[in-house]
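Reader question, answered in our methods column.
A reader sent in the components of a multi-part assembly and asked whether the whole thing could be modeled at once rather than chain by chain. We filled in our standard form and ran it. Here is what they sent:
COMPLEX SIZE: three components
ENTRIES:
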Amino acid sequence: MRRLSSKLFRSEDTPAIARSLLGKLLVVPGPAGERVSGMIVETEAYLGVTDRAAHSYGGRRTARNEITYAVGGHVYVFFVYGMYHQLNIVTGPPNHPHVVLVRGVEPVEGIDLMRERRATVAYKNLTSGPGKLCVAFGIDRSFNGKKLSGKRIWIEDYRDISAADIAIGPRIGIDYAGEDAGRPWRFWIRGNSFVSRPRIESRPAKDENISL
DNA sequence: TGTCCGATTGGT
DNA sequence: CCAATCGGACAG
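And here is the structure of the entire assembly that came back:
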């Protein structure tokens, strides 16, 4: 298994990075050093200071989102709703606070441990959402600021996903973002059951300026 | 220090 | 549809 080149995360084209992460393998070793992994099936791009849905909108820079201003390849983990963590990958050059949110993963290795961590939920619910997958992988705020080139968390090549199998649509849970709420910056593998909300139909990317 | 609210989830 | 649950952002 080969880790992704850290170069990939330094691109300024965050939607393209979000799309390219589909089919890649997220690896977070368990307590005994064993492999715990899953194939990324759903991502969202957050485009920094101009994106009303982003934590860095308008140049906001706080203790919480400080790491998003670092060079691409770092991990940004934040806590919401009093109980859930969210896993993000920082992208772009320094002072370019774009990120990719990992919203869905298909379990590959360490499934027994994921089951323990997620208690009694059905297999299909193990990792089909940004909060769920953080529980299954044991991701909390101690991961904030870690590098994907380190030992606690990384991403490997795994499967190639053809363009025909990729769906694109507006992001989830950001209705407060005004015009930016409708931007097609959510990407998922069509038909995969670990996508958090498969019901939302995809639409052509042609109406928006994203490279695919 | 006080208030408001969230890039969600699971149960009604 | 709605409660859970608490840290972060920001106003005062």
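What stands out: The two ends of chain A are 25 Å apart (CA to CA). Chain A has one domain: 6-189.
Send us your own complexes using the same form.
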